[in-house]
Design brief:
The protein is α/β, with parallel strands linked by helices and 500 residues long. It has 17 helices and 18 strands. α10 packs across α12 and α14 runs parallel beside α17. The longest helix has 26 residues. The chain binds 2-acetamido-2-deoxy-beta-D-glucopyranose (2 copies). It comes from Adineta steineri.
Length: 500
């Protein structure tokens, strides 16, 4: 009975919100047809215009960090670079208004094929293939560990065959970067933590389903008034799901940002999340010569201003996935290799040259008594120390996430073995080389133990192990010491064989 009351109350509130939104939008004037004043978009610029626009140049860092195989620079190949960037005389709508009809674009490739006056394809590259057979997590017994952690029906990695995994992780096949003309950047019409959708007076671009929210594929009819200081000629839109959360920023916004910085012109300003790990990672990008400070426009998530640019750039995986059972597009090898090489190598294949410097066993420690802190932390320290024979030259380092991200990167580049409970500390596996041993300790109650770090680590070509743990996502957890001892001994044995 209570439940029914509660549900009807929620229904009333929802109806009210929808009504207010509709009233708000329909009160607005209909947008003026700006294309009436707009000169026709020139298909080919004249000679003098070409001379005034520089030709496409690959950024130095793409070569320096050995990333050229991750892009194809479609617009340079197609001689589109100049066509796409010849400026049109255009300004955003002078007052907020509504448009009467618009399209939702899921397939950007076919849209820009037909509507070449609305934007163009900047890059369209096949993602890196998976290893075949697709690697599986290692465990003392994978089926037993999966059922003990209640992930046997949740993790694709627990329930699918290796040939199925190859099709599903990810289910996308390409990465596509687009340039959209006369475009606005949404501030979170669907949810305040989900900004970044590009829309124009003609279309709303949802070219990957990066949220499960119900409104994820809705068109945007509302055209905002954009303050002059938020209007640009060219703007890179890297913002996305949960702006500063490390677990979203590093594997989702960071690879997008890198793809955009690699393929869009250096003259474009760069809209990025502000605060938390986003700020520290931008320091690293600046130090590594990937972007200059003067290009960065921090997105203010409190005031959430609208942005407009004559050309807005965006990058996502392709095609758009609608099948909920088969909708995996994150943490693939391309993104992981891109992030790893750009932020944690000196260029090229670092694994050989730095192998002798990789002498750390890193044990990730969460705050004492905090969520997923390990009750047996000191027992683990004692056991690890007892196993580290001098002959292997390995040293134990306890990681508590102190200091700047640049120090974390330097530390994890030296990792030979990483051990830790599920949590943001595990993100640091992306700075570690292929061949690093990773042991993630799970838990069996509360929110399901997520699969993300397993995918990230496996796609980085690391030896990823799952260790049993007991307890709730929200509290301290116990590690299964028998399981841990078995796994750690196995790893030490493998390293002994490797170095023999
Ligand atoms: C998705 O998976 C569920 C459970 O395995 C199944 O019942 C459903 O039919 C599947 N849906 C599609 C579209 O394949
Ligand atoms: C650059 O990357 C490619 C592809 O991963 C690899 O085959 C090649 O050896 C790398 N080059 C250097 C100099 O490490």
């Amino acid at each position: 009975m209570r439940n029914k009351l509660y549900i009807s109350r929620i229904a009333i509130i929802l109806c009210f919100i929808i009504l207010v939104t509709w009233l708000f939008i329909f009160r607005l004037p209909i947008c003026q047809n700006q294309s009436a004043f707009k000169p026709h978009f020139p298909p080919r610029p004249s000679g003098s215009q070409v001379a005034s626009i520089e030709s496409w140049q690959m950024p130095d860092w793409v070569q320096r960090y050995n990333l050229t195989h991750l892009f194809d620079w479609t617009w340079d190949k197609n001689d589109d670079f100049v066509r796409c960037r010849v400026s049109t005389v255009y300004s955003p709508q002078p007052i907020a208004c509504r448009i009467q009809s618009t399209t939702v674009v899921n397939d950007v490739l076919s849209y820009f094929d037909i509507h070449s006056d609305k934007g163009c394809i900047v890059d369209n590259v096949a993602r890196l293939p998976n290893f075949t057979p697709h690697p599986l997590p290692r465990a003392r017994s994978l089926s037993n560990t999966c059922s003990s952690l209640n992930i046997d029906h949740k993790w694709t990695l627990c329930k699918q065959s290796q040939s199925e995994l190859d099709q599903r992780l990810p289910a996308t096949t390409r990465f596509v970067t687009i340039a959209v003309f006369n475009a606005y950047i949404d501030t979170g019409y669907c949810h305040s933590q989900l900004p970044g959708t590009i829309f124009t007076e003609h279309a709303t671009f949802h070219f990957q389903s990066w949220t499960n929210n119900l409104c994820y594929n809705d068109p945007i009819f509302y055209i905002p008034r954009v303050h002059p200081e938020h209007q640009y000629t060219e703007l890179i839109d890297s913002i996305g799901v949960y702006l500063q959360a490390p677990g979203h920023f590093v594997p989702e916004q960071l690879p997008r940002l890198l793809r955009l910085l690699a393929t869009a012109p250096k003259t474009a300003k760069v809209l990025v999340a502000k605060g938390g790990i986003a700020d520290s990672l931008l320091d690293v990008l600046v130090e590594r010569g990937i972007v200059t400070r003067d290009r960065i426009i921090p997105y203010d998530n409190n005031n959430r201003p609208y942005y407009f640019a004559k050309i807005v750039y965006r990058s996502e995986s392709w095609p758009y996935l609608t099948d909920k059972n088969n909708s995996h597009h994150l943490y693939d090898r391309t993104d992981m290799q891109l992030v790893h090489r750009a932020l944690a190598t000196d260029g090229g294949d670092d694994d050989q040259q730095s192998k002798n410097k990789r002498n750390l066993v890193i044990l990730i420690k969460r705050k004492d008594g905090g969520t997923r802190s390990i009750v047996e932390h000191l027992d683990m320290v004692a056991f690890i120390n007892s196993r580290l024979k001098k002959s292997l030259g390995l040293h134990l380092e306890i990681f508590e996430a102190e200091g700047h991200v640049r120090d974390h990167i330097a530390l994890f580049r030296r990792a030979r073995i990483i051990v830790g409970p599920h949590g943001a500390g595990m993100l640091n596996v992306v700075w570690s080389s292929a061949g690093t041993y990773v042991v993630e300790i799970g838990y069996n109650k509360g929110m399901t133990f997520p699969q993300m770090y397993a995918e990230m680590s496996l796609h980085l070509e690391q030896h990823y192990w799952i260790c049993k743990g007991y307890g709730n996502y929200d509290g301290p957890i116990h590690v299964d010491m028998d399981d841990f001892i078995y796994i750690f001994n196995e790893i030490i044995h493998e390293i002994e064989v490797e170095t023999r």
